[in-house]
Amino acid sequence: MLIFNIKAMDLKSGLPFWLIKNGLTDDYLTLDTNIETEILIIGSGITGALTAHFLCDAGVKCVIVDKRMSSTGSTTASTAQLQYEIDTYLFDLIDKVGEVNAVKAYKKCLESIYTLEKIIKKLKIDGHFNWRSSLYIASNAAGFKDLEKEYEIRKKHKLPVTLLNQKQLKSKFNIDKKGALYNDCSAQIDTFKLCNEILDYHKKHSGLLVYSHTEIVKIENKKGYILAHTEKKNTIKAKKIVAAPGFESEKLLKEKVMQLNSTYVIVSKPMKEDEFWQEKCLIWETARPYIYIRTTEDNRIMVGGFDEPFQDPKRRDKLMEKKNEAIIKRFKKFFPDSKIEIDFYWCGTFGETKDGLPFIGEHKDHPNMYFALGYGGNGITFSVIAAEMIKDLYVGNPTDADLFAFDR
Q1: Which intervals hold domain FAD dependent oxidoreductase (predicted)?
Q2: Can you give the pTM of this predicted structure?
Q3: Beta strands at 62-65 and 39-42: parallel, antiparallel or unpaired
Q4: Which alpha helices (H) appear in 165-290, and where do they start and end?
Q5: What is the pLDDT of residues 198-253, one digit of tens each?
Q6: How far is it, in rounded angstroms, from Cα 137 to Cα 334?
Q7: Does residue 285 share a domain with residue 201?
Q8: Which of 309, 327, 352 is the last residue of a domain?
Q9: CB–CB of 202/63 below 8 Å?
Q10: Engineered SS bond to 56: which of 162, 206, 321, 359, CB 3.0-4.6 Å?
């Protein structure tokens, strides 16, 4: 028997832009009776929504529960940059997990962006998916040496990449740095909007049930099924459970699989078209901690970063003003003439693993449960990978489960 002891952590503070922009959707049901389903998914954020999509698409009956209002956890705080690049350099990841697995992880992230586009087109939903180019900028001479090394290993494995020197970077993007890696197959979305549209689609077309303010407090493994108990004394009978409540899943695990970090984000007031950089590409840098930059549908600039180890929500929130100033200062090192002004800001909490890869699949201590833990800066691409892999595990298709296993 598994007893849950997961208190709802304050995942974010400030005014997450996506929540203000889209507004709260109609709230979902709260479970007040005993029900039965094939798969129970815990967590209604983008990972839970994508998992439900793949399972529903395969004809599997699903129910989603969330202790919060649906989709209002860390999904509202995501900056939603979709890149195949993992926070860990490919050459470093090779040292950690071997060349075959490292390259496979990078290629799966690349494939996941195209997969997400296919889902959006198939369901005829929006989510503000837009292809973007990407710049990984060398913050200094040492960073450029790392990028040169990274370029060679990516080129060897036919990953999309171009190395720009200082002159080329200045000429094309008017950014005066040592150089950058460039690719034209990144993307950006509105994660909160996309999450809700996926859930709405499958509620209407697949019989998906989504229950908000429904907390699972105990799970019993019975002969041939699982019985999940809610805080309000109702039960959900299921064949399998998918744990997708983000980093809160760690409370279920004996071992420490990730470190919690705080990240800070600002969104500008709307800008004029001529105030943007070439291609409105996604930007990040080799410095640690780094900042990351994107644009929005309504011509704003979104800048985040200056992550640091999470200690508690109060300490995280007290740093917000200082972090906002640091983010703007760093942004102006890229674009010194920018007239950027802050309109929205927030901070959030996310998990990060030692090798930068997610944990997906089964765990020896938790029979009949799949984990979908897409930690790190690639949370959404990892969510796509996890969702499809869990569907394949359940229906018996071949998978690369070992790549993201807990005992890797």
Answers
A1: 39-393
A2: 0.92
A3: parallel
A4: 166-173, 191-205
A5: 999 999 999 999 999 999 999 999 999 999 999 999 999 999 999 998 656 666 77
A6: 10
A7: no
A8: 352
A9: no
A10: 206
